[in-house]
Amino acid sequence: MEKIQIICNPNAGRQIIQKNVPKLVELLKDGKKSVDLTYTKGKFHAEDLGYESCSKGYDLIITVGGDGTINEVVNGMMKSHTKSKLAIYPAGSVNDFGNYLKIPKNIEDFSKIIMKNNSMKVDVGASDQRYFLNVAAAGLLPEVAHKVSSEAKTVLGKFAYYIEGIKEFSKIMFKPINIKLYNDGCEEEKEILFFILANSPSVGGFKYVAPEAKVNDGHLDLLIVEHGDFKDVASIFVKAFTGSHAKHPALKYLQVQKFTIHSDEAIDLDLDGELAGRLPASFRVENQALDILIP
């Protein structure tokens, strides 16, 4: 009998999706699955549960929560020598990776994904000792994201980020970051507004931030927005809604396997929407490191 561990963050998003979890347990048990359900109790608890679930030999871990909860579970799983399969039931404000995979929120439809057990190997990004499933970033976008209150995220979802972005835009224009980029044996010095390192195309509620990204190609897509005129940066944001920004002159778009960014300034680093230290940082991709269930 397949053993399943459900790791549920009861405080993610609007706390609506979580009400479906008991029904999910019932459906899976009706399908002859052995199911354990654990609710997280605080920061990094999901990480501990991810590690323990792999170590105990669960066949599948289902994470119910937002991008931050998924990040913790992935970090726990990546620390284990043996790895369970992973399924994502999106319950956060933005749910970038789950939306990219087209995971349904209808509980019956989601349970069918579990029963079919169709999966794909996906890459995982790493920043020194921490892992990320979808995105690493520093500069404008993380600063905007972390100014959004949890209440605003809950009520407005991804639109809270857009609203805060508009409010902060004029301030951030005057705060470029001086960095040194080490990639493929080359060193560059740049003055930038922000960088994004994406595993999937979907970042921050935008579906096409990294339009060439694939989650299983052994690369991460690096986008660097250089300090420029307001109209240039605004143009990038507008074009990002349709994915037509990749060749914008104020944007550098690379596909990388590993690289390092240095800065003498105290710049926060964001991994999957959660603060995770500061620059400098070295990044790499763990090729097809996790097996994730898909529709």
From TrEMBL:
<keyword id="KW-0443">Lipid metabolism</keyword>
<feature type="domain" description="DAGKc">
    <location>
        <begin position="1"/>
        <end position="131"/>
    </location>
</feature>
<keyword id="KW-0067">ATP-binding</keyword>
<dbReference type="InterPro" id="IPR045540">
    <property type="entry name" value="YegS/DAGK_C"/>
</dbReference>
<dbReference type="GO" id="GO:0046872">
    <property type="term" value="F:metal ion binding"/>
</dbReference>
<keyword id="KW-0594">Phospholipid biosynthesis</keyword>
<keyword id="KW-0547">Nucleotide-binding</keyword>
<dbReference type="Pfam" id="PF00781">
    <property type="entry name" value="DAGK_cat"/>
</dbReference>
<keyword id="KW-0808">Transferase</keyword>
<keyword id="KW-1208">Phospholipid metabolism</keyword>
<keyword id="KW-0418">Kinase</keyword>
<dbReference type="InterPro" id="IPR016064">
    <property type="entry name" value="NAD/diacylglycerol_kinase_sf"/>
</dbReference>
<keyword id="KW-0479">Metal-binding</keyword>
<keyword id="KW-0444">Lipid biosynthesis</keyword>
<dbReference type="InterPro" id="IPR050187">
    <property type="entry name" value="Lipid_Phosphate_FormReg"/>
</dbReference>
<dbReference type="GO" id="GO:0004143">
    <property type="term" value="F:ATP-dependent diacylglycerol kinase activity"/>
</dbReference>
<dbReference type="GO" id="GO:0005886">
    <property type="term" value="C:plasma membrane"/>
</dbReference>
<protein>
    <submittedName>
        <fullName>Diacylglycerol kinase (ATP)</fullName>
    </submittedName>
</protein>
<dbReference type="InterPro" id="IPR017438">
    <property type="entry name" value="ATP-NAD_kinase_N"/>
</dbReference>
<comment type="similarity">
    <text>Belongs to the diacylglycerol/lipid kinase family.</text>
</comment>
<dbReference type="InterPro" id="IPR001206">
    <property type="entry name" value="Diacylglycerol_kinase_cat_dom"/>
</dbReference>
<dbReference type="GO" id="GO:0008654">
    <property type="term" value="P:phospholipid biosynthetic process"/>
</dbReference>
<keyword id="KW-0460">Magnesium</keyword>
<dbReference type="Pfam" id="PF19279">
    <property type="entry name" value="YegS_C"/>
</dbReference>
<dbReference type="InterPro" id="IPR005218">
    <property type="entry name" value="Diacylglycerol/lipid_kinase"/>
</dbReference>
<dbReference type="GO" id="GO:0005524">
    <property type="term" value="F:ATP binding"/>
</dbReference>
